[in-house]
């Protein structure tokens, strides 16, 4: 069943959907963000919220009932908090859709609908979790409220995976340079805006802290001037994931400041990878996070090589009960 | 006009309010979070969103029209992005309520309603921005959908400011110890959960990065195990703002892990300051951020003294155009 059919079947069961609740942990939580951002910005009736799974479990929103769609994600399908969130959502009568790459994993148990995505096959495949979730959001908006740019979005989905794959392949040399420049950085900040806000977040808490044990902080680039910019000094390392879309000016303003004070800045700019040549302006905002995720993955891989610290190396995860 | 009268007048003008949008920057954005969290968790019909002001300006949500209430905040009332957000909201017909301490400041120009709060007078006064915003959220919920715990909340508001003032006063010795222990820390992480999530955020980006130029990162304590915890090692400095309420288990789980690996952990626990003796269990979640903000302010003050770095010291703010 594709995303359109899933939403259409839910609508037959419950024409009066009031809330969409996105639930996940870590990178899987962040992968839900573009869909959440899309609905926040475009819906006029449907409520939208986004929780780390245990927040959902311990303080379950009142709106979770048979008028709610709960969309959850877990790469391996075993994240205990997210599995529990599905059970709670189901017990309250919500329509549960889950994204995972693992057939019959625990996450699928209480899901009414499961969307399987790929991951390891290619840079593009790594984006399917984020992309299918955004497709679900698009279907929800279109089927329950109507969406004028539906065809432009559909066309975007046909192009983004290849575009991201090609962008990632073309980024290797820049990524090697980044890795050499940042391999000894004691701390690295990551920021972005718009739909890409939580790609910056995942880059910071997963790629930097979890997978490289590098100290890191992250914030929306619009928040940069309201606190974080006072940390800027010569050689303080920043990564700016720069959007080609409505919030570009927010990212640019931060970049101008970083350059003015000689911060050690790495910019990954969607404009450089031809996003606007392939994706219509009406919907380009929502495709930035996919492109920028794919490109930054190459940067993280090169960093792990330069630091001789594999991305899969862990101190605690997979080794302990906690 | 008090918060009840403001919402009642808006309801007379527009009985069909569909969305509440919270807009601010930095600490003022974070001060709106408990209200946003309250509505996310308790409303069943009203849509809720929360933006840093330039995100709202460059990608204004479609729902901003005469069925929306926009609630904005700026301490001095001059934050340019937030002032502009008010103008945009007003131009689209939204009902604009603003919180500031500065009479007739630019923020008040396009606000239909202004709530003035105090700030410098006491630790309790610093909480009024957050508290009045939460009161607005409570009134919106009660008047548009009904709220069973309204009287418990009202009673909480009568007690929280004094309670927070007393808690702050009693924290001084612990705060001095913290300041001695953390004054040379190269990086400090801050986390919390529930309604207090963005108190942790503001502590990190404002009190640490902006006001002390200390490297810092922040995340929800439920996210700790999904990335950030791999940074934990002996003596890595963490601050945990611990809630007395439904999400306490999330904070406790993080604390257990930090203790197990001898991280340098400072816990500020709402339980220690008697929150549950004064605030009813039905609504206690929403008062944690006020209490914990007041107490941590004392910690930040002591840190600034130990580091001989006043909280008002800036490199860029107030000194440059940017």
Automatic annotation (TrEMBL), chains A, B:
GO MF annotations, alphabetized: carbohydrate derivative binding; glutamine-fructose-6-phosphate transaminase (isomerizing) activity
Cross-referenced SUPFAM superfamilies: SIS domain (SSF53697)
Taxonomic lineage: Bacteria, Bacillati, Bacillota, Clostridia, Eubacteriales
Taxonomic superkingdom: Bacteria
Protein name: SIS domain-containing protein
Entry's Gene Ontology BP terms: fructose 6-phosphate metabolic process; protein N-linked glycosylation; UDP-N-acetylglucosamine metabolic process
Residues annotated as domain SIS: 6-146
CDD domains attached to this UniProt entry: SIS_1, SIS_GlmS_GlmD_2
Pfam family, one: SIS
Gene3D superfamilies referenced in this protein's UniProt entry, alphabetically: 1.10.10.2240, 3.40.50.12570, Glucose-6-phosphate isomerase like protein, domain 1 (3.40.50.10490)
Source species: Clostridium sartagoforme
